[in-house]
Write a structure and sequence with these properties.
Blueprint (H helix, E strand, L loop, with lengths): L7 H18 L13 H11 L1 E2 L4 E2 L4 H10 L12 E5 L6 H15 L4 E6 L2 H6 L1 H11 L1 H4 L3 E3 L2 E4 L4 E7 L12 E5 L7 H9 L11 E6 L10 H10 L2 E2 L9 E4 L2 E5 L10 H10 L2 H8 L7 E3 L3 H6 L12 E7 L7 E9 L2 E10 L21 H11 L1 E7 L1 H13 L5 E3 L4 H15 L3 E2 L4 H8 L1 E6 L2 E6 L7 H16 L3
Parallel strand pairs: 3-9, 3-12, 4-7, 4-8, 8-9, 14-17, 16-19, 17-18
Antiparallel strand pairs: 1-2, 5-6, 6-7, 10-11, 11-12, 13-20, 14-15, 15-16, 20-21
Helix pairs in contact: 2-3, 4-6, 15-17
Length: about 500
């Protein structure tokens, strides 16, 4: 007989057909487990019944995950949970969301009138993370699908009146619940006032004390910017008691009725050196440490290490008058500089062709133009006009906050094409690209002291996988770094290789 492998979509469709046939053949069987099920019971069920596409069958668990689950779900002699709160902190790509999903689904199938909430920062995240893994596991296992149904954001087990609901952060809509399990996914990202309010509102009910839990899956956050996670981490991990669960080097802690796994070590087969080398080439160092080492970091870090900038210094070939360049412009009336940076492109590299700044006098302001002579090169407007006349400037990039009027006037005078860069997505993209280009030694400069100073004055403020160039302190200037960011973006978009 010829063997064949179904595609994932076909596999799910096939299993759904099996479910419908099972439902048509017999009444749904109620699953009733002992009132004192243990963490080992949960593990046995996960590794035999909680299916995932990657294995086309049950989800395996590593030894450290088994040990942590047994402790997290441990009960006292009277059958109540030892812990009211479980903080499952693990490095990225350690199936922490799948484990949370499996724990919830097990309890829903084995507890009469069970109620769980899966909380995330928005409905899309609520549906796609832990709740999504729950519904996927239902689809993949006909025996479970014969008992469980789901629609929109709700899973129900009709025969035993159990429910699992995915909800976004909404403190008004969820006050006063009576849930058996409340799961917060990616708790490091719960930073809004609404999230803090919901955390307060969704306390465990006193009527279910000892028989209910909060469960939080996460990795580390940014220090000072995770108002829910960081106090929990401080209390349980920093100031709790280290536990020995028989797994060498495993970081697990308890403080009264709160438990935390805080794993920092790659322990799973797919967490390979090659994978981490690739990630290190992509992520900012502080973000790599946060998500792949589970270490608390600052969202602010030095924009460019000094050795990276030094390594980019080199000989720049002569530049013909008709070669294409792009120019970045950044300015303020007072306090900051007016900066201009020009770049050319050669292959996959950009080359610094021009960098100049105007600094306001003490207590004074920068005057952008000589109203009597717009071509006066001692003023920024006159210099921009000169550059447009003497070089083949393909585009000028500018920050519209202070420069909208000047650049619009110049474009209306046919000086050139001017592209505005918003403070939002345009700048985030350009700033991250400049970081990557300097890291990869594709930004060739001649040691320009002004540009070097502004690069060294810059910090990087990370926003998820994005980056923004910011000042290290209010007194430092970074205008030329911002100019270089916009010019680099234009160079790779508009200039020929």
């Amino acid at each position: 007989m010829n063997s064949f492998v179904l595609s994932p979509s076909a596999e799910i469709a096939y299993r759904r057909e099996q479910v419908e046939r099972a439902r048509a053949r017999s009444r749904v069987r109620v699953v009733s487990a002992p009132a004192s099920w243990t963490g080992q019971d949960v593990i046995d069920w996960i590794t035999s019944q909680f299916h995932i596409p990657e294995t086309n069958g049950p989800m395996p668990l590593a030894d450290y995950q088994r040990a942590a689950l047994i402790e997290a779900l441990r009960r006292d002699t009277d059958g109540t949970f030892v812990y009211d709160l479980v903080l499952w902190g693990d490095i990225k790509k350690s199936i922490k969301s799948c484990i949370a999903a499996a724990v919830i689904l097990f309890q829903a199938l084995h507890t009469l009138y069970f109620s769980a909430k899966v909380v995330a920062n928005d409905q899309k995240q609520a549906d796609s993370r832990v709740f999504g893994f729950i519904t996927r596991a239902i689809d993949l296992n006909p025996a479970i699908a014969a008992q469980a149904t789901y629609k929109n954001h709700l899973v129900t087990i009709p025969a035993i009146h159990s429910t699992i609901e995915a909800i976004p952060v909404d403190p008004k809509g969820e006050a006063g619940g009576n849930d058996d399990l409340i799961e917060w996914t990616e708790l490091h990202a719960a930073t809004s006032k609404a999230a803090i309010d919901l955390w307060t509102e969704m306390t465990l009910s006193p009527t279910k004390y000892g028989y209910s839990q909060r469960w939080c899956d996460t990795y580390a956050g940014h220090s000072g910017e995770a108002p829910i996670l960081e106090p929990l981490y401080d209390k349980i991990v920093k100031n709790g008691k280290r536990l020995d669960l028989g797994v060498p080097g495993l970081d697990v802690f308890a403080n009264k009725r709160q438990f935390a796994l805080w794993n920092k070590t790659p322990r799973l087969p797919w967490q390979t050196p090659a994978y981490y080398a690739s990630e290190a080439d992509t992520l900012l160092p502080n973000e790599f440490d946060r998500v792949h080492k589970n270490e608390w970091t600052s969202s602010m870090s030095v924009f460019i290490p000094g050795e990276w900038w030094t390594a980019c210094r080199g000989d720049i070939p002569p530049f013909g008058k008709y070669r294409e360049i792009v120019i970045g412009i950044d300015a303020a009336v007072s306090g900051d500089c007016f900066g201009i940076v020009g770049l050319s492109r050669s292959g996959d590299k950009v080359e610094l062709r021009y960098a100049r700044k105007w600094t306001p006098p003490p207590g004074g302001k920068i005057t952008y133009s000589n109203v009597e002579d717009p071509d006066d090169v001692t003023y920024p407007e006159g210099e921009l006009r000169r550059l447009a006349r003497e070089y083949n400037v393909i585009a000028f990039g500018y920050d519209p906050y202070q420069l909208h009027h000047l650049c619009t006037s110049l474009e209306n005078d046919n000086v050139g094409y001017f592209r505005s860069f918003s403070q939002g997505s345009d700048r985030l993209k350009a700033d991250k690209q400049l970081y990557d280009v300097i890291r990869d030694r594709r930004f060739v400069h001649d040691g320009s002291p002004d540009l070097t100073e502004h690069i060294q004055n810059a910090n990087a403020k990370t926003e998820g996988d994005k980056l923004r160039i910011v000042k290290r302190s209010d007194s430092l200037k970074i205008d030329l770094a911002v100019c270089a960011s916009m010019a680099t973006d234009l160079a790779y978009e508009l200039l020929p290789e």
